[in-house]
Amino acid sequence: QVQLVESGGGSVQAGGSLRLSCVASGDTYSRYCMGWFRQPPGKEREGVASIDTDDSTNYADSVKGRFTISKDHAKNTLYLQLNSLKPEDTAMYYCAAAPLAVCWDDSWPEVVEYRYWGQGTQVTVSS
Fold first, then answer.
1. Looking at the predicted structure, is the pLDDT value of residue 29 above 70?
2. How far apart are CA 29 and CA 10, in angstroms?
3. What percent of the chain has pLDDT over 90?
4. DSSP string, the chain
5. % residues pLDDT > 70 (the chain)
């Protein structure tokens, strides 16, 4: 069992930056594939990025070069650095944990693969 709590969301202007955090507790999250997802208003939840136990990463094409996923093992914290934000990045952002193998194939952005979810943190980008 893994408990996940996100923070760091907010309202920024286009071109701005935010850093989202996800603190994990319970079972050691370092055994899981960790992912960030987002759900824009009125749309389905989508995968943004994932990171495995060796810090290998995957990114959605829409965020490559702008977002960076990382982990601080000592703090049991997952991060998502959001740079060069655009209005279309406006969404509720969630962190999630999946079996490790999910990170290693094309299923990493699939919502159904993830067992544990945080409550989400809102990011709003104005033009």
1. no
2. 25
3. 89
4. -EEEEEE--EEEETT--EEEEEEEEES-GGGEEEEEEEE-TTS--EEEEEE-TT--EEE-TTTTTTEEEEEEGGGTEEEEEE-S--GGG-EEEEEEEEEGGGGGSTTTT-GGG--EE---EEEEEE-
5. 98
The 10 Å Cβ neighbour count of residue 50 is 26
Residues 6+ apart with CB under 8 A from 68: 49, 79, 80, 81, 83
For residues 37, 44, 108, 33, the Cα torsion angle rounded to the nearest 10 degrees is 40
Category of 84 on φ-ψ map: left (φ > 0), alpha (ψ -120 to 50) or beta: left
Q: Measured between alpha carbons, how far is 60 from 50 in angstroms, rounded to an integer?
A: 9
pLDDT tens digit string along 53-64?
999 999 999 999
Sign of CA dihedral 107, 111, 115, 121: positive
CB-neighbour burial class of residue 64 (10 A; exposed 0-12, middle 13-18, buried 19+):
exposed
